[in-house]
Amino acid sequence: MTQAPVNVTVTGAAGQIGYALLFRIASGQLLGQDTPVRLRLLEIPQAVKAAEGTALELEDCAFPLLSGIDIFDDAKKAFDGVNVGLLVGARPRSKGMERGDLLEANGGIFKPQGEAINAGAADDVKVLVVGNPANTNALIAQAHAPDVPKERFTAMTRLDHNRAAAQLAAKLGVGVADIRKLTIWGNHSATQYPDIFHAEVGGKNAAEAVGDQKWLEDEFIPRVAKRGAEIIEARGASSAASAANAAIDHVYDWVNGTAEGDWVSMGIPSDGSYGVPEGIISSFPVTTKNGKYEIVEGLEINEFSRGKIDASVQELTDERDTVKQLGLI
Ligand SMILES: NC(=O)C1=CN([C@@H]2O[C@H](COP(=O)(O)OP(=O)(O)OC[C@H]3O[C@@H](n4cnc5c(N)ncnc54)[C@H](O)[C@@H]3O)[C@@H](O)[C@H]2O)C=CC1
Ligand SMILES: O=C([O-])CC(=O)C(=O)O
């Protein structure tokens, strides 16, 4: 029954998401209870000691599925043999800081990491970029890993998806488990579009069940899209445990498949579906099976949704153009 351990590389391992994430990976929640994992942690030199401290705690948990922990300050070593790469390390947005300001600073992180993945990753590598601006950071890493199939680079919009499910469930007075087929479109930013027009609640159309366009426009969409800022305002730090939870959900579903009759949201390289320019990393509704994802095709997009999707996609093409001008892709 025992299979070889899966190499999971986590960057930013000493950060706040890292601390919320590593114990869950080691306990089997990322890949499943039959899959041993070997953790490969990447940090900047100043934070290696803190990562070592976390490693001591991981050891003290005596997780049966954790077959080893290695800590690096060199991306080439950290990504050698990587099967699942969680690219978390980045500079988090602080109060009042625009996400656009982060593009240049983070570009310098994701280029060498893309190169390291290209040089050393296992053939089946799957990459999830969490560090913001996640979609464009994923694009940068992908651009520097020409030997890795492009579709293996994904960005996290699952936290937005989960936030939307929670808000919709609260509005309708149902449990989150009753909500199906929500979609986050576009960028993991305030322009994202959480779409309930195809969502279902207890088998009925969610937009019809809500029946309140004003709530949708004035409360639901802005609340979900600006939830990151709301959390920063409340905690004085950005979402950590909920972000780690979403990363677990993203990879778990990618590897193990989505439930019949449902889908999830992932930031993935566009194939041109739904008028989203090919190549940019944008959030779509996807189903997953046997370790592969597929865009849910054929959804009817109403005029309201079209405008919202286009606005977020425009932001993504602008970000792409900026990093192109900066020579990062
Ligand atoms: N996509 C999403 O839904 C979400 C994304 N985020 C983003 O996740 C990122 C991480 O957030 P936190 O853990 O809260 O930040 P943090 O500041 O607590 O931790 C970041 C860690 O990354 C490390 N790091 C910096 N450069 C690195 C490099 N080149 N290689 C390896 N490690 C490096 C730092 O030393 C630090 O330990 C931020 O960019 C944040 O904005 C946060 C929440 C949700
Ligand atoms: O806004 C941030 O920096 C953190 C984030 O991405 C989120 O909570 O969605």
UniProtKB/TrEMBL annotation:
Binding site for NAD(+): 12-18, 106, 113, 130-132
Binding positions (substrate): 93, 99, 132, 163
Enzyme class: oxidoreductase
Keyword set includes Glycoprotein: no
Gene name in the database record: mdh
Organism: Prauserella isguenensis
Keywords of this entry: NAD, Oxidoreductase, Tricarboxylic acid cycle
Protein name per the record: Malate dehydrogenase
Start and end residues of each Lactate/malate dehydrogenase C-terminal domain: 157-324
CDD domains: MDH_chloroplast-like
